[in-house]
Amino acid sequence: MNPVIEVKKVSKVFRSKGVEMEALKDIDLEIQRGEIFGIIGMSGAGKSTLVRCLNYLERPTSGNVLIEGEDLGELSEAQLRLKRREISMIFQHFNLLMQKKVLDNIAFPLLIQGVKKAEARRRAQELLQTVGLSDKANAYPAQLSGGQKQRVAIARALAVNPKILLCDEATSALDPQTTESILDLLQEINRRYGITIVIITHEMAVVRKICTHVAIVEKGEIIEQGAMVDIFNHPKSKKARELIIGQREDDSWPGEKRQKNLLEKTGKIRIVFSENSAFEPVIGNMVLKFGTPVNILKADTKNVGGVAKGEMILGVPEDPEVQRQMKEYLSQRGLEIEEVTEDVE
Ligand SMILES: Nc1ncnc2c1ncn2[C@@H]1O[C@H](COP(=O)(O)OP(=O)(O)OP(=O)(O)O)[C@@H](O)[C@H]1O
Fold it and tell me: Among 24, 29, 147, 237, which lies 20 to 30 A Cα-Cα from 215?
């Protein structure tokens, strides 16, 4: 089967006042159906330009973009408009129509497609339920919180039954908790409707939480791409390590130095395994999920009938958000969690 999105040797040159700026250089990318694909990179790397090339809001200077095997460059304007219905987009600042009520914002793209008003409003109501905002149909966007506005934007994006959802920094204007709930919603949409999601973000926690695959863009080029756990666990290039580990470093990255940094910069969590703990290699799975190592500082566990019992103290990354998410992850698996403030012998 064709990849749902295929980018072949795409370059994009912006020209203004005789000055040329090569924003994308020879980009090759394949995104398979059902993936949640993160595109990450420093500011100005070319992420937005790349994502805008995926629906031809920006025409590549050279190269090809294929959606389900169909080359966008070979379509007429009318065909392109039809094809774009398969690709919805949400943005950092929501882009809602402020003078229209929530329900009408969602119905709007359907009306443009010629759907009858009653049918469009019925579908909009259904989508409001999907995003958990049934009671806000008659509110105006100005009366909503940032998270609620993004939910409305997601409902509007889903109205046209897209196959692909492009998210351009969709959670960057939201606080961590709201970000988490929007990511949960995107994950649910991906699973329930099989929609392929492409996420541009500068927030590594977003990628860790929901992306299955990731590409790192640097100065208009893709420097690494692959499964998220592989890239986050083993970033190969210096730039990728800077982005993912979030610290500048020498070209070499000796294991000892890394271990030392980790030990200096950890928080500590005590976890208690009991009868209710999940039957799974919970620490190993957590390391895979978060793409960051933890240190077992102390373990006093027994294997009872294949289930761990006892307690363990983990050294975890200092980032409070990562710590919070790890605690939540462990609690959800039936483990009791305590913060450790004293030194561990
Ligand atoms: N319409 C344009 N005309 C000229 N240059 C442009 C245009 N759009 C983008 N660029 C340039 O292309 C490069 C890539 O920009 P782009 O917005 O894709 O980066 P980005 O990775 O999304 O950055 P950010 O995270 O800051 O949004 C930048 O140097 C930018 O100045």
Answer: 147
**Percentage of residues in the chain with pLDDT exceeding 90?**
60
Beta bridge partner(s), residue 62: 11
ipTM score: 0.94
Q: Where are the domains of the chain?
A: 5-249, 263-339
Greatest C-alpha distance within the chain? 73
Cα–ligand 1 centroid distance for 24 (angstroms): 10
Fold classification of 5-249 is Rossmann fold (3.40.50)
The count of residues in the chain is 345
HSE-CB of 200 using CA atoms within 13 angstroms? 22
Ligand 1 nearest-atom number relative to CA 58: 1
Q: How far is the CA of 19 from the centre of ligand 1 (A)?
A: 14
Query: What global pTM score does this model have?
Result: 0.73
In this structure, are residues 7 and 72 in contact, taking their beta carbons and an 8 Å threshold? no
The closest residue, in CA terms, to atom 12 on ligand 1 is: 23
Task: Indicate the pLDDT class of residue 278, thresholds 50, 70 and 90.
Answer: low
- 169 C-alpha to center of ligand 1: Å? 14
CATH of 263-339, one of 3.40.50.880, 3.40.50.720, 3.30.70.270, 3.30.70.260: 3.30.70.260
